[in-house]
Amino acid sequence: MNKASISTLFLAVTLSLPFTVSLTELPSQQTAAHAKQEEQAELKLYAIQEKDKHGFIDQNGTVVIPPSYDVVGEFHNGLAMFGQGGKYGFLNEKGEVVIPAVYEDADHFSVEGLAAVKQGETFGFINKQNQMVIPATFEHARSFVEGRAAVKKDGKYGFIDASGQMVIPPAYETVWGFHEGLCVVYQSGKAGFIDKQGATVIPFKYDIANPFRDGLAVVFENEQQGFGMINTSGQYVIGPKVWEPGAFSEGLADVYVEVDGSYKATYINKDGSFVIPPKYERALPFSEGLAAVKVDGKYGYIDKTGKMVIQPQFASGGVFERGLAYEVIREEDGGYSFCYINKQGEIVWKSTKMKEFPGDVE
Questions:
Q1: Which of 328, 334, 333 has the alpha carbon at shortest distance from 359?
Q2: Band of residue 39 on the pLDDT scale cut at 50, 70, 90
Q3: Would you call the peptide bond into 100 cis, given omega within 30 degrees of 0 as the criterion?
Q4: What are the residues facing 325 on neighbouring strands?
Q5: Average pLDDT, integer, range 190-207
Q6: Residues 167, 171, 177, 183: is their CA dihedral positive or negative?
Q7: Which of 66, 197, 315, 341 sees the fewest Cβ atoms within 10 Å?
Q8: Cα angle at 148 between 146 and 153, to 5 degrees?
């Protein structure tokens, strides 16, 4: 696995991606723990796909909002984005359309009560009453994360605050959202980290950099050094190593390591020590105590001791959120189905079978 292939896992997603990919971030006004508790308490519904339409179920698998939309996002602060006929709007948890589908793009509502939307050829920010409170003057924009929203002006990205003031001038080619107070930004093809005032905290010297998770960030400085993990001071805590690390989640990070000429996946702790021998074809981050791993072409779930809690049987790997994980089943007689499973591996909701899977299974 070389830099070109592994970078598809780690390289920053640029702001030119469509808003139909939902982002879940933590607001700056609260502690991370409090924000997580608030979001978990609020997010009661799970997006589903039935053939080519999308809707929502509750935790018991009961359909609450029937699949009737072309696309949906996750619920944030009481509203979820939906797309219909190439336009985007917002609905509430009762399935009522509160903001009609009139926008060319729409991101989620942040804790500030604002959402980035595209009106015509430019982006601005609306409130929950569908009022354009920050005018649509930007070439591109994303919703607020930790009190800052990325916006594009004259081909470069900067950040505004909730009043619409440009607090970090547009100077960057690509940016992530803020995570743990810092943001990955790119200048002249190199990545560094800035704080919320725009000060450079970690210099621009990396080919690839990912946001901080659990106090550590994955970076790739050059081919000679390879991937490693740095702290918020820019010091290497792990590496650079010969293996390829993922982000930390719940105290462990998924990594790929070469074993007998091929790459195997496993997990390390913050000392860089393997907690499970490298033996999986693929490994996903831990969430709610479980992680999806690929064995003999199928995904199951392990706990942090490496015990297989849910036997490998799925065509894709999911991540548990509020007790459920989204999965893909390859049917024995051909075709695919979507489903949600609980932590016992029981299916709580399943779609009708599709002859062909609409996209990449993994």
A1: 328
A2: very low
A3: no
A4: 341
A5: 97
A6: negative
A7: 197
A8: 155
Between strands 183-187 and 190-194, the pairing is: antiparallel
Rounded CA gap, 40 and 119, in Å? 31
CB 194 within 8 A of CB 200: yes
Per-domain residue ranges for the chain? 20-178
DSSP-assigned letters across all residues of 175-210: E---BTTBEEEEETTEEEEE-TT--EEEEEEESEE-
- What is the DSSP secondary structure assignment for residue 351, as one 8-state letter? P
Angle, CA 102 vertex, CA 97 and CA 108 arms, to 5°: 65
Write the CA distances from 262 to 8, 89, 273, 278, 303, integer angstroms. Answer: 18, 46, 20, 11, 24
**Single-letter code of the amino acid located at 208:** I
- Cβ distance 125 to 149 under 8 Å? yes
Residue 269 CA to residue 252 CA, distance in Å, equals 5
Q: So what's the pLDDT on residue 17?
A: 28
Residue 346 has pLDDT above 70, yes or no: yes
